Amino acid sequence: MLAIKDLSVGYGDTKVLWDINLEIAPGEIVALIGVNGAGKTTLLKTLMGLLPPWTGSIRYRGQELSRLDTHRIVKLGINLTPQGRLLFTGMSVEENLLMGAYLRRDSEVKHDLKHIYDLFPRLSERKRQRAGTLSGGEQQMCALGRSLMSRPSLLLLDEMSLGLAPIVVEMLLDLVVEIRGQGTTVLLVEQDIEEALLRADRGYVLEGGRMEMSGPSPDLLSNASLRVAYLGLA
Amino acid sequence: MHLWLQIILNGILQGGILGISALAFSLQWGVMNLINLAHGSFQILAAYVAMVLLQRLGLDPFLAMPLVFLIFLAGGYLLQFGIINRVISGNLFMTLLLTYGLDFVLANFMILLFTADYKSVNTPYANSSWHLLGFQFPIVRTLALIFLVILSLLLWLFLEYSRTGRAIRATSMGTEPARLMGLKIPKVYALTFGLSSGLAAIGGIFFGLSNAFSPAAGGPLTVGAFVVTILGGVGTSWGPLVGGLILGVLDAVGSVILGPTYVNIITFGLLLIILILRPTGVLGRAAT
């Protein structure tokens, strides 16, 4: 579904990603793991057309993405729930959700809105409230709901768990599995590698801008060097 | 007592013209972080257009208003899309420099076409007034205030409830998330600048109906819009109304007490006080 080949990206003169290769098959949950500064967010921004790639290609369903504008990429069915959520803080929860469906012209937007409120009753209670006044967990629900309102085929999730209580993280990640069950492919970017790999089919490990490791989740979870580096376990 | 009430009334009515001007200025500033130094010259240009339409075609300025609005909407759209968008994401200094240059070009273009002499839009009702309860209501200024209330309401409804208006607000809150929703920021900006240019043109027609003007009159209009915007709060739909009324009344009262020569002391003194005490404006929210 998505195939990234030999991708290099940077800011200004500084190269941040070196020769990245990554593939995602339809219906998969793929985890992308790495510490702060490894280049995970840079990779997602490049996928969304927010950063121009230096070299390499990004193909999505056979179409080259690397020179497309962000709005075209969104139109193709790829959606990013950005790190830090980036909600429209001065707008109500409902307006934020409707912004997610901005490109849609079909008649089922209302129906999907109700579906989001069923998934997140907390958002339903606060739909008229300004998004900036929500708690961190609620904001993350709103950001995820906003992405889902676009009916993405490929959903990119950047650090959903950041700064949230473990119980909220569990709930959101379980929901990701449910979303996949409904036909959405997911690229899950996380620092919380155990939680991520427990739910992903496969994983990639990004270190210092290079893809250091990849494989099925169980293999990565039992990999000794990963366990030492990320979980502090021998 | 009656005299003072009339003076205050004059100030309130003057607030209409100030407010319409600020409605446009504040929209550009609030959505695009653009301080448009050519704003006043846009308005003077609209006043000249209304004057020409009246003199050559006998078209009343109020009937010409929708046409002038559309011309400026289209012109503003193209100007933003073709030129201003190229520097808008740079630092504030670049957009100040560009709009300063634009102001220069516009002002000299108007001198070329209309000479530097003072002109006016001469309608039969330009200097007439309505009388009510012993007070004088200059027709043009009274209509300007009514227009300001209606335009503020329409702008608010548009921004709050239309799909495009929501896109404009979303963009004002963050271009990156707006892009991630699939918005084309250059188009949103062009539309915003077009809309505010149209509003500026309406303000310019009212100004031309109630004042003599020359190509050099744009500068003070820009400063007025700046002060009113700061007073009311940047990027609020009702701020220009509030700011316009405050500045209008203070100018009117001040020019009687201090003499009309010193009225700028009030304008700028007020600006200073507001920036120190409440930099977000009367209606503005903290940290936008």
TrEMBL record, chain A:
Gene3D superfamilies: P-loop containing nucleotide triphosphate hydrolases. Its EC number is 3.6.1.3. It comes from the Bacteria. Keywords: Amino-acid transport, ATP-binding, Hydrolase, Nucleotide-binding, Transport. It holds the Pfam family ABC_tran. The keyword ATP-binding applies. Coiled coil: none annotated. The keyword Transmembrane helix does not apply. One of its GO terms (biological process) is L-amino acid transport. InterPro entries: AAA+_ATPase, ABC_transporter-like_ATP-bd, BCAA_Transport_ATP-bd_LivF, P-loop_NTPase. Residues 2-233 form the ABC transporter domain. GO terms for molecular function: ATP binding; ATP hydrolysis activity; branched-chain amino acid transmembrane transporter activity. Belongs to the ABC transporter superfamily. This is ABC transporter. It comes from Acididesulfobacillus acetoxydans.
Automatic annotation (TrEMBL), chain B:
GO terms for cellular component: plasma membrane. GO terms for molecular function: transmembrane transporter activity. GO terms for biological process: amino acid transport. Its main location: membrane. Keywords: Amino-acid transport, Cell membrane, Membrane, Transmembrane, Transmembrane helix, Transport. It is found in: Cell membrane. It comes from the Bacteria. The chain crosses the membrane at residues 6-27, 34-55, 61-79, 91-115, 135-159, 188-209, 221-250, 257-277. It is a multi-pass membrane protein. Belongs to the binding-protein-dependent transport system permease family. LivHM subfamily. This is Branched-chain amino acid ABC transporter, permease protein. It comes from Acididesulfobacillus acetoxydans.
